[in-house]
Amino acid sequence: MNPIKLREDSARRIFRDRREAGQAMAELLGHYRGHEEVIVLGLPRGGIPVAWEVAAALGAPLDALVVRKLGVPDNPEFAFGALATGGRIVLADDVVRALRLTSDQIRAVAEDEAAELARREAAYRGSRGPLDVAGRTVILVDDGLATGSSMFAAIEAIRAQEPLRIVVAVPAAPESTCRELAAMVDEVVCATIPSPFRAVGASYWDFTQVTDEQVHTLLNTPTTGSPSSAPDPVQAIRACAIHAPDGIPPLEHFDDLIGTASIVLIGESTHGTHEFYSARAEMTKWLIEHRGFDAVAIEGDWPDAARVNRYVHARGSDTTAEEALRGFERFPAWMWRNTVVRDFVDWLRDHNDEQVRNDERTTGFYGLDLYSLHRSMNEVVRYLERTDRAAAQRAKTRYGCFGEADSGDGQAYGYGAAFGAGKTCEDQAVTQLVEMQRKSLAEFSTGTDAAEELFDALRNAWSVRDAELYYRTMFGDHTASWNLRDGHMADTLDALREHLSRGQRPTGVTRAPRIVVWAHNSHVGDARATEFGAEGQITLGQLMRQRHGAHCRAIGSSTYYGSVTAAQEWGGTAVHETVRPALPSSMETLLHDAGIGEFLVRLDTGDAAADTLGQPRLQRAIGVVYRPGTERQSHYFHTRAADQFDALIHIDRTTALQPLEPTSIWSAQRTPETYPTGL
Fold first, then answer.
1. SS3 657
2. Are domains 4-230 and 239-369+478-668 of this chain identical in fold?
3. Which residues contact residue 50 at a Cβ distance below 8 angstroms, ignoring those fewer than 6 apart?
4. Torsion angle of alpha carbons 392, 394, 399, 403, nearest 10°?
5. Could you give the strand order of the β-sheet that contains 75-84, starting from the edge strand earlier in sequence?
6. Could you give the CA distance from residue 330 to residue 406 in angstroms, rounded to a whole number?
7. What DSSP element (H or E) covers 4?
8. What DSSP string runs through 113-145?
9. Distance between CA 30 and CA 229 in Å, rounded?
């Protein structure tokens, strides 16, 4: 079988315009750079801007191969075949038979299109003839394919001229068309394979029609004899990389990156990588010690993090960091019950103790997530039992709607409510939240333990309200449930900022509270720079940028290969899994090819690295579940990293995060440190 490169993905807009699509194609065709026998032929009109970028990057000559669609007489947009230069006709036999088109009808349409074909060739080239393709490698480029009839005709026209090799390259096409083409030519490169495939234009944000004048201009703009318009992406990364041993940037560079930001989001590309957690903890310590950051807010549930917050402020009954982290019992417990977080919590307790002795502000530890439906209900009731027994009884009655299920039963409630198998408790959750809000307004007092406890109870009431809606929504539209979750995290973060500004600011200090966020790249990054943004998905990082602008910084992370702590299915046991080397043409492979190991790339400076990472590339995301067998479908999506983050930290080889209670399975699967050499 002929080689075919497939990049599967969903039906989402990927490319800004044809120029960006051409730049992406040029990278996938980079192995032809510098080959003197290569020529690039674009199919007008839409294929010419794409082909020009390819030809310029490869340093190859560019020409047009005019192909005209043969449209059904009463519906010319519906093709029954195509006509190429030299009179080559390709018919879709099934369409011809189904519509019972006669020879006379086919001939009449072909004659009309032949006249238009000749007109376009004259308009595009003038008196210049076509390039000679005999004995050369021909790369045929279009802006996308649907049925492929135009490309089939182009292939037949070129094959008759005896080229050395035929390559077909398109930014978007259905899988069936790509595979059919692969049986006809030497190589097919389909950058994306939308599924379901709706139309070529659905892969572009800007699919403005290309004019004859634009085609003429591009064909007369040299693509050879001058430096390529697309710099070598690997060299661009090398030139801009800042060495960051163990993933920790040099302090002067980190300080400059943070600037005056009061919200710093630090991401991870897996939920189980030791180096990501360790580097993030060290950066956070610096932010607390040297920038006076007031809080750490994590992608964890509010009541579980609140227990840690009490410990680091010397409140509550826990006597060690390990005890304080026992609230994180819901899957995936290792995400926060691990050795790195334990050590950080120990450090934060010591730091706060010293701050108290010096009468300085302390730093809190808070959760942003909403999975704590029943645990948050219990926390609301416990608070009210201490402060207002009548209100506690009202809360018990309202929350009794949810039944006596334990904290792991949120999905069961949501399933029953969503599909009519159980009642919805939305009204009860909202009513209780409204009562708690009124109580907060009436009783709030600044800077007291009572204010802390009331704020904690109010955020738990919010968690109940939003979790109830989330669990009902999660069995329907994925985008809607995702947006509810990230919206909740953003609202919680802003509520925390407001609370800290009122309750923990010393007299005379007017600066905004400073918070560092720990979450996955998929939440920290800006959704507008990913393929999911085209479907309306939002993220915490996006909302922070929109609400707080330059006061926000987002730092992403990546790795090429190594090991990770993850489960094989949701709710499963944590295992020590090998992370496969990243896919070719992914962002991770580009960073790996730089050969530096551990480094920071600034994406907020507009330099060559930012330009390179501003093009769409596959990016890997491993959450709490890792499925190596379906890695492309399960863990990759298209992004523009330069628009997604303000900076990116790459650690080429990483190791698995160690849970506080590693199972025998996890321990047995640990890869020896000497792997694979045995030395």
1. coil
2. no
3. 18, 19, 21, 22, 25, 42, 141, 142, 143, 171
4. 100
5. 67-72, 75-84, 88-91
6. 11
7. strand 4-10
8. HHHHHHHHHHHHHTTPPPPP-TTSEEEEE-S--
9. 13
Q: Give the single-character DSSP code of 82.
A: E
Secondary structure of residue 51 in the 3-state scheme? helix
562 neighbors 654 (Cβ within 8 angstroms)? yes
Q: Which two tokens stand for residue 235?
A: 């060299």
CA–CA distances in Å: residue 462 to residues 41, 373, 376, 382, 470: 59, 10, 9, 16, 12
pTM confidence score:
0.79
The CATH homologous superfamily for domain 239-369+478-668 is EreA-like (biosynthetic domain) (3.40.1660.10)
Residues 6+ apart with CB under 8 A from 664: none
CA-CA distance, 184 to 334, in Å (whole number)?
Answer: 51
Task: Tell me what percent of the residues of the chain surpass a pLDDT of 70.
Answer: 91
CA atoms within 13 A on the CB side of 555: 25
Cα gap 72→77, rounded to integer Å: 7
Calculate the alpha carbon distances from 656 to 307, 582, 653 in Å: 26, 16, 10
C-alpha–C-alpha distance, residues 277 and 411, integer Å: 29
Q: What pLDDT was estimated at residue 240?
A: 95
Residue 567 phi, psi dihedral angles, 5° rounding: -105, 160
Residue 364 in tokens: 């809190």
In this prediction, the residues of the chain whose per-residue pLDDT falls under 70 are 1-12, 77, 226-231, 404-412, 414-423, 444-447, 503-509, 668-679
Which two tokens mark 431?
Answer: 């009513």
In the chain, domain spans: 4-230, 239-369+478-668, 370-477
- SS3 string of 220-244? CCCCCCCCCCCCCHHHHHHHHCEEC
At the top level of CATH, the class of 4-230 is alpha beta
Tell me the C-alpha distance between 576 and 272, whole Å. 9
564/658 Cα distance (integer angstroms): 9
Residue ranges of alpha helices (H) inside 388-445 are: 389-399, 410-418, 426-443
How far is it, in rounded angstroms, from Cα 305 to Cα 366?
A: 5
Average pLDDT of the chain, as a whole number: 88
Cα separation, 325 vs 338, in Å, equals 9
Tokens 């506690």 belong to 392
